[in-house]
Amino acid sequence: MPSEKPLSHARRQAPDAAAVTTSTMPDAARASSVRERDTGTRLLSLHTPVAASAVDDEQSAEMRIETHIYRTIVDGVLAHRLTPGTKLPEPELCQLFDVGRAVVRRVLDRLAHDGIVTLRPNKGAVIAEPTPQETREIFEARRALERSLVALAVERVTHDDLAMLRRQLDAEHAAMHRFDQPSWARLASDFHLRVAALAGNAVLLRYLTELISRCSLIVGLYEPPGYAPCEHDEHTAIVACIEQRDAEGAIARMQSHLEELERRIETTRMRGQKSLASLLGLPEVAPAEDAVPAPPPVKRASRKRG
């Protein structure tokens, strides 16, 4: 019999407290807990780059820096500071975040993978500009997918799931009333992923995660400033239907909600002429060539020939 392969570092570790606690829960509560943890992973992947396991402190610090840069750019999009076509020059990003080009390029690659930036050969990165046709197709796909997910969520929701959704609504309400646009935008996306997770279908949840990432970009780029990405009252109405086990009502509310969101998209936003630092919400940094003023040219006196 061939010898067993050695366990990986991750598998050799002792189970954490959450895992031990989950194993002692009733079946329904355990399923709800597992769903919520899986949703948390999806929410993290939606807002931050996916990091490999850190093998030392230096790598962990580097991944934290990449996450910070990624989130700063995403928040700039969601807060309407970074508009379609805004250039993201590598040298300026390196200077603003005090990192090397390798770090900046990894972040830009992740942003391009998520559809937030476009990498142009020999011209650098710019904030992506989804076309009207792409916008229609993305919202059409999202409506079709969320219709199925909501129906499954109503069928499988538990009391613990409903308590989680109420906590989500409370967090939205708090962010809305403190006028925290980046947090509200993230929470608006999180709501849809949390509802989808109740369906218990990891494949559909993964597809929706990608669609929501694309929709968040479109909403952040094109929705008129001052508008909420989602209406809190609409989310509340959807939760009420789920709580009543009203599948038709929940589907109708969700479809109307997504249709209204698409109608609010404004694809003729004017672009500003601000610096990259101000667009990212960072303090201005003087260009390296301007840090030390160059001395004035010295004029040499012409020599007269005898």
From TrEMBL:
Key words of the record: Coiled coil, DNA-binding, Transcription, Transcription regulation
Signal sequence interval, chain numbering: none
SMART domains documented for this protein: FCD, HTH_GNTR
Keyword Nucleotide-binding (UniProt): no
Domain named HTH gntR-type: residues: 63-130
Pfam families named among the record's database cross-references: FCD, GntR
Region called Disordered, residue ranges: 1-40, 287-306
Molecular function terms, GO-annotated: DNA binding; DNA-binding transcription factor activity
Any coiled-coil regions, as ranges: 244-271
InterPro entries: GntR_C (IPR011711), TF_FadR/GntR_C (IPR008920), Tscrpt_reg_HTH_GntR (IPR000524), WH-like_DNA-bd_sf (IPR036388), WH_DNA-bd_sf (IPR036390)
Entry protein name: HTH-type transcriptional repressor RspR
Source organism per UniProt: Pandoraea captiosa
Protein's gene: rspR_2
